[in-house]
């Protein structure tokens, strides 16, 4: 979390009388906010209509049902997905085409399938199915992605948290936990532009994750590269090559990678990808084949024709950046102008991804969210970025500025700042 530059006296350093006067000012500002009758939503990281419009050429594709390798995509088969799209995204994800599966429209479904298969059957390197174990535990970097935590909760998998730092999860804490407890079977990681902090896992951290000793011989890294191509600046972060690092360290089956085009083309009609060792791919397809005959290859073909090449994907993402980067700039501008130097909040300024992570005064995040809701501004629930929704400090709020129009982002963030100030003043006034 980047500390914001001090420009005024911190609120906590002021006298009791000054805080009381500040509280009165914020109550008046909040009354004005209520009077605006807003109806704004910053809850989920969805692409805006303008972003979806970028992919409307998909509606006229594919121009033929036969792919570049002569496969009739209208028919059954091809459980691993069409070759040309796998080759394209293998280049983007730094892996070999034979290590990629192109599937349906949801990488989250692939994650659930992998967890199900591990629990019922065990992995390539498992001694027995995971459900034969007394307990299953996953390491969860926090703040983190709420849908990961929801999956674990649904399966009844225990969680243990570690801090998410600017360079990735606290790798020393991860290594100590994984080495000491055989019930710890895996870790969730969003390696590039993490949800919600925007952190990027460095090569050094990735190397240690790939090579660290683990008490469970079949420890897994769920490497969710959901935002690998979602840059907000021209300086584009590159994801660490976790599969090669793990293979070189003697743990080729440890990482399982996920990605999708959900925020690249159509959120509800994209293509999801799974990556892993060749053995992991065969393992996944072997289980998938018990309930599927083939994916929507027509949709895969239209995506292949739409992009043309891996460079076509990169060029397409520049158009996304031009739409959403100004919204992130606006979030930072307003928070800096309204909250900078007061010592009541800090926030990230991500270089990619879909979120801004806002930390407010301890014990006030839930109050901020409630105040915002009453003013017509919907925010993600406080604590959503922690397993079970339990933020022990009640400080973190995830902001999602991509979906609203820029003017709505301005109004929403100005309102959020007012709520942060009022909640902080209430807390400090006691």
Write a structural description.
The chain folds into 2 domains: 11-52 and 315-429, Aspartate Aminotransferase, domain 1 (Alpha-Beta Complex); 69-308, Type I PLP-dependent aspartate aminotransferase-like (Major domain) (Aspartate Aminotransferase, domain 2). It contains 13 helices and 13 strands. Helix 8 (242-248) links the parallel strand 7 (220-224) and strand 8. The protein is an alpha/beta fold and 430 residues long. The longest helix has 30 residues, at 310-339. It starts with 15 loop residues before the first helix and ends with a helix. The protein has helices at residues 16-35, 49-53, 83-93, 107-121, 146-155, 171-180, 203-211, 242-248, 278-288, 297-307, 310-339, 365-374, 406-429, and strands spanning 40-42, 100-102, 137-142, 158-165, 168-169, 184-189, 220-224, 255-260, 272-275, 345-347, 356-360, 377-379, 396-399. The strands form 3 sheets. It has an 8-stranded mixed sheet with strand order 2-9-8-7-6-3-4-5, sandwiched between helices.
Secondary structure tally: strands: 13
Rg from alpha-carbon coordinates: 23 Å
Shape: globular
- Give the helix tally: 13
What's the average pLDDT? Answer: 97
- Unreliable residue stretches: 2-7
User: What's the name of the CATH homologous superfamily of the largest domain?
Assistant: Type I PLP-dependent aspartate aminotransferase-like (Major domain)
Assembly type of the shown chains? single chain
Biggest β-sheet: strands ordered side by side in the sheet: 2-9-8-7-6-3-4-5
Secondary structure: helix percent: 40-55%
How far do the termini sit from each other? 27 Å
Sketch the major β-sheet: 8 strands, mixed
The computed structural class is alpha/beta
How much of the sequence lies in strands comes to 5-15%
CATH architecture type of the largest domain: 3-Layer(aba) Sandwich
Order of helices and strands: HEHHEHEHEEHEHEHEEHHHEEHEEH
Task: Return the domain count.
Answer: 2
């Amino acid at each position: 979390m980047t500390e914001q530059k001090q420009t005024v006296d911190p609120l906590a350093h002021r006298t009791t009388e000054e805080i009381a006067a500040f509280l009165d000012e914020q109550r008046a500002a909040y009354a004005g906010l209520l009077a605006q009758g807003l109806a704004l939503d910053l809850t989920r990281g969805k692409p805006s209509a303008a972003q979806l419009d970028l992919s409307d050429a998909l509606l006229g594709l594919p121009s033929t049902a036969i792919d570049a390798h002569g496969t009739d995509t209208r028919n059954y088969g091809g459980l691993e997905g069409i070759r040309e799209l796998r080759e394209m995204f293998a280049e983007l994800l730094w892996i070999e085409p034979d290590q990629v599966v192109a599937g349906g429209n949801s990488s989250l479904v692939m994650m659930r399938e992998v967890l199900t298969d591990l629990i019922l059957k065990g992995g390539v390197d498992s001694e027995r199915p995971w459900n034969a174990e007394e307990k299953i535990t996953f390491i969860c970097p926090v703040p983190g992605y709420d849908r990961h935590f929801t999956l674990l909760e649904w399966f009844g998998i225990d969680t243990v948290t570690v801090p998410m730092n600017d360079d990735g999860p606290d790798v020393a804490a991860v290594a100590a936990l994984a080495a000491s407890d055989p019930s710890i079977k895996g870790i969730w990681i969003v390696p590039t532009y993490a949800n919600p902090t925007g952190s990027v896992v460095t090569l050094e951290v990735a190397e240690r994750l790939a090579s660290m000793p683990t008490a469970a011989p079949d420890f897994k890294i769920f490497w969710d590269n959901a935002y690998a191509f979602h840059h907000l600046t021209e300086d584009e972060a590159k994801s660490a090559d976790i599969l090669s690092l793990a293979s070189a360290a003697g743990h080729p089956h440890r990482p399982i990678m996920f990605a999708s085009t959900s925020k690249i083309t159509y959120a509800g009609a994209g293509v999801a990808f799974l990556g892993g060792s060749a053995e992991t791919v065969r393992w996944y397809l072997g289980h998938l084949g018990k309930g599927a005959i083939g994916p929507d290859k027509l949709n895969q073909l239209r995506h292949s024709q739409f992009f043309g090449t891996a460079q076509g994907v990169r060029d397409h993402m520049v158009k996304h950046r031009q739409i959403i980067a100004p919204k992130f700039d606006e979030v930072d501008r307003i928070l800096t102008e309204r909250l900078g130097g007061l010592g009541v909040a800090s926030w990230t300024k991500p270089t990619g991804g879909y979120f801004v992570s806002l930390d407010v005064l301890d014990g006030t995040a839930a109050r901020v969210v409630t105040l915002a809701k009453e003013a017509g501004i919907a925010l993600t629930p406080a604590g959503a970025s922690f397993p079970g929704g339990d933020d022990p400090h009640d400080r973190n709020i995830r902001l999602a500025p991509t979906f609203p129009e820029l003017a709505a982002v301005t109004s929403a963030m100005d309102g959020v700042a007012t709520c942060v100030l009022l909640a902080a003043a209430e807390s400090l006034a006691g």
